[in-house]
Design goal:
With about 150 residues, the protein is an alpha+beta fold. The protein has a single domain, classed as Winged helix-like DNA-binding domain superfamily/Winged helix DNA-binding domain (Arc Repressor Mutant, subunit A, Orthogonal Bundle), CATH 1.10.10. It is built from six helices and three strands; from the N terminus they run H-H-E-H-H-E-E-H-H. Strands 1-3-2 form a three-stranded antiparallel β-sheet. A hairpin with a 2-residue loop joins strand 2 and strand 3. Helix 2 crosses helix 4, helix 2 crosses helix 5 and helix 3 packs across helix 4.
């Protein structure tokens, strides 16, 4: 293995790409008319009370223009509704699931559980928690550095 392949950057980047490939293929195989980003947005909207476009952008690590397109597509498919409300004295678009959106999320959740269980059977719960905590800590450091250098 070369020096680059042994680097932390390579390990994180390649893991993210393989996970995204796995997730993209999984979502396509469900034949629900969604791509992986739309599915992830639905799950985030489902999980976050009073989710606004800014919240979605931050969690997806995308700009608001991209998340606006995703939200518009999901609204067009009848999976979410977008309501203009006030949050922290500012007008914001609040995203929430429709009944059909809730049904799709439940279907996806039922189908993704075996995949998650398969991965979880390969790694102990303790190891998964350790990895999550290490990645979260590393991401926070990278965010801090990225923001100070922009």
């Amino acid at each position: 293995m070369g020096k680059y392949e042994d680097s932390l950057f390579y390990q994180l980047n390649s893991n993210a790409k393989y996970f995204n490939l796995l997730f993209d293929n999984f979502v396509k195989g469900l034949n629900l008319g969604l791509n992986a980003q739309e599915h992830l947005a639905l799950i985030i909207i489902s999980d976050k009370k009073d989710c606004c476009q800014r919240d979605l952008a931050k969690i997806l690590v995308k700009d608001r223009a991209n998340t606006g397109k995703i939200a518009s597509t999901l609204e067009g498919k009848g999976l979410i509704k977008i309501e203009l409300k006030t949050k922290n004295n500012r007008p914001v678009k609040i995203l929430s699931l429709t009944q059909n959106g809730k049904k799709i999320c439940k279907t996806i959740d039922e189908k993704v559980k075996p995949l998650i269980n398969k991965i979880n059977n390969e790694i102990s719960k303790e190891k998964i928690e350790q990895i999550k905590n290490s990645l979260k800590e590393f991401r926070q450091i990278v965010e801090k550095v990225a923001k100070t250098n922009i």
